[in-house]
Amino acid sequence: MHNFTDGTDALNPTRFATRLNSFASAAHREWPGQSTKPSVMQMAERAARVKGLTDLDLNYPDHVNENPAELAQKLGNLGLSINGFAMRYYTNPAFKLGAFTHPDEPVRREAIDLTKKGIDAAREAGSKLMTIWLGQDGFDYSFQADYAKMWQHELDGIREVCAHDPDCLISIEYKPNEPRSYSLMPDAATTLLAIKDVGAKNLGVTLDFAHVLYADEQPAHAAALIARHSRVLGVHLNDGYAKRDDGLMVGAVHTLQTIELLRQIRRDGYDGAIYFDTFPDMTGLDPVHECEVNIKTVQRMLKVVDRLEQDNRLANAIDRQDAVSTQAIVQELMFGAEH
């Protein structure tokens, strides 16, 4: 177990990434008179106005309609790096019934080959992280699926894309459902079973805060399990009411759980970017301001984590599982002691 107290050895607080599509929010105000959707570079130029933002994640193939190296150069000219790519399986309508788990082998092959192309593109863009969210891989009805066969197809697909480029990190982002009624990998435990079965050294997990909440998991507990059995390769911060993927701003609902997660991943040595998977575009919020507030919120939370790690009272109370004392200590270090 690592013991970090200065906030720099792990969980580098200077790397913040965000969802590019957020910057299409209220497009009619940002680009008045434009009848088409904003381009990748229009959204990136808007994102570049965010103070403290260092990285973007790009969806593949949605956001990559030109040479990946040239795209990375254009983003670099804006002062932004590419944290990683994320696969999206929308190009073939058949993927609605499954990507790696589609009943027809040619469709599965198309999904796997598309993922390999995405990995190649990510590497050309200078990134070594590919996030795979397999939301289409699941089922909706009893008696719809041969569960053992579907599970095997999923493992075979993941294993093949991991073997395609062993130097590229492949991170599974799990989610309980949506678009399928039941996802094949809905939670941390099932995802870890898949990772164990696949056995690839470059495979890990992306924790999405809202997904974890409505999987009925405690975020820090999920992170600890993943660190024990695999590794956390990505952290998507947002918030919600644990009923769906709300994509609310960081700390809007579950402040303590977010701080506890930040503390846990720091202790476990996470050194990747903090990525904001929030949805200002759902209600037309100002995405620049929203992202800046998210960054400031996490920076404040990391200062709280610093104080928590430097206070021996908390560790001692946790050792005793003394919930009353831990709550008192955390509240004091967040809001100050009474005078």
Mind explaining what this structure looks like?
With 339 residues, the chain is of the alpha/beta class. Helices cover 43% and strands 13% of the residues. The strands form 2 sheets. It has an 8-stranded parallel β-barrel, surrounded by 5 helices. Strands 5-7 form a two-stranded antiparallel sheet. β9, α9 and β10 form a beta-alpha-beta unit. α5 packs across α6 and α8 packs parallel to α9. The longest helix has 23 residues. The protein starts with 15 loop residues before the first strand and ends with a helix. The N terminus is likely disordered.
Low-confidence region ranges:
1-9
Please, what is the average pLDDT? 95
Helical percent range?
40-55%
Query: Could you give the order of strands across the largest sheet?
Result: 1-2-3-4-6-8-9-10
Instruction: Please identify the structural class as seen in this structure.
Output: alpha/beta
End-to-end span in angstroms?
36 Å
Number of helices: 12
Q: Beta-sheet strand percentage?
A: 5-15%
Multimeric state of these chains?
single chain
Largest sheet: 8 strands, parallel, barrel
Order of helices and strands: EHHEHEHEEHEEHEHHEHEHHH
Write the layout of secondary structure elements.
Blueprint: E1 16-19, H1 27-30, H2 40-47, E2 55-60, H3 68-77, E3 81-87, H4 105-124, E4 129-132, E5 138-139, H5 147-164, E6 169-173, E7 182-183, H6 188-198, E8 203-208, H7 209-214, H8 219-229, E9 232-237, H9 255-267, E10 274-276, H10 287-309, H11 312-319, H12 323-335
Parallel strand pairs: 1-2, 1-10, 2-3, 3-4, 4-6, 6-8, 8-9, 9-10
Antiparallel strand pairs: 5-7
Helix pairs in contact: 4-5, 5-6, 6-8, 8-9, 9-10, 11-12
